[in-house]
Structure formats: structure tokens, C-alpha cells
Amino acid sequence: MAGKSSRRSRVKPARQRTRRPQAQPDVEFTEEERPELPGPPVPPYAVVHKLLSAGARDKARAVNAVRQEARGEAEEQRRRYTDVASGVAAALHELRVLLARDGERLRGAGFADHADTLAALDRRIAATLANAGVRFIDPVGERYLAVADHLSVKHRPAEGEDTGLVVSETLSPGVLLDDGELLRPAQVFLAAGAPHTAEDAPAAEAGPAPPRTEPPEGGGAAPHGPETEENDT
């Protein structure tokens, strides 16, 4: 019995045959399903060239946008720089007019230290403008033809040649940059050989002259309040 069971266990089961699926026929596309582009077929290198050209155009546009932005920022910084230069030049001119008009009066009134401080401030502002590449144009006393390119003449004598004219007064200073750009010309009066003041110019151009106060005799300061009499004791 044991021998029969062992022979039965060694009997291999019969293989089952499987049928292979039949190959499907190739799908055919009609002209409506797969339209062809008009014209001759595009070779592969032309497609690659087109892609590279599109990438180069996009890169060039990005670079131009960055350049345009940088150019705008540079122009804005230059505008601020020129505005500051013009404002400082105008303030320096007003300070010099003040010193020329009232400097001696301040010293005579006992304010010599204040006058010296204003003079030192004048020199410091002028040095700052020079270091920043800004030329301050205040051509009082110079020949007209020597500085004519940097001037805007507000009054000149009716008669006389240009060779005999000098700058007699500066109404507002000129500002010239180191690169040669004239931000604004100096507005001046001209005279024939001798300086003249705004009172000598026509009233329509010069305007009314500011009132002047003469210092009291003895060079002292004018009193600021009512005078009081002191009794001798």
C-alpha cells in the first residue's frame, strides 16, 4: 500500500493549455483624425533653432527690463543730486550776501565770534560743493566775455561794447558740474567798468530795494527797547 501511494504522488498533473489572444489589427488614422500641417515637413534642427531663438528673445527682454529699471533709478538719483547742489549753492550765496552786508556791523556790535562762525561755515559749504563735483559760479567783478557762457544777464547798460562790461552783481549763483553740465546759469547785472547795485537797474527787473538801516554812531548796536535815563548818584 505504501508503494502505491508513493507512485501516485510522483504522477505529474496534466498541463492546461492556454490560448494566446489574437493580435489586434493596427489602428488606422484618417485625415480627419490626424491632420497634417500645410507645407513641407519641418526638420528637427529647425524646431531646435526656433526654441533656442525664443529663449534668447525672452532673455534679452529680461535684460532690457533690468537695464531700464536701473536707468530710471540712476536718473532719479541724479535729479536728487542736482536739486541738492542747486539748493546748497543758493544758500551759500545768501550767506555770502549776509556777510558782505552785515559782517562789519556784527563785529562792531560785539558779535565778532558770530561773524567768524558764519565765515567758517561759508568756507565749509564751499569746500563740500567742490568735493561733490559742483562748481559755484559767483562772477562778481569778472569780465563779461570771460564768463558769458555761464550767465543769464538781467540788466546791462544801454550803450557800450561787450569788451568793456563787467559783472557788477550776482542775483542768484550758477551751478556747474564737473562733467560740464550747467544746471543753471548765474543771474547777474552788468556794468561798464564799475560795479553797480540793484537800485541802478530798472525797477521792473530789479524790484524794490530792501530798506537799509544805518548803524548808530560809534559802531554800537541799535537799541532794542525804549531808552531809559539813569540818574547820577
UniProtKB/TrEMBL annotation:
Regions of biased composition (Basic residues) lie at: 1-20
The record's region (Disordered) falls at: 1-44, 193-233
Superkingdom is: Bacteria
Compositional bias segments (type: Low complexity): 193-207
**What name does UniProt use for this protein?**
Molecular chaperone GrpE (Heat shock protein)
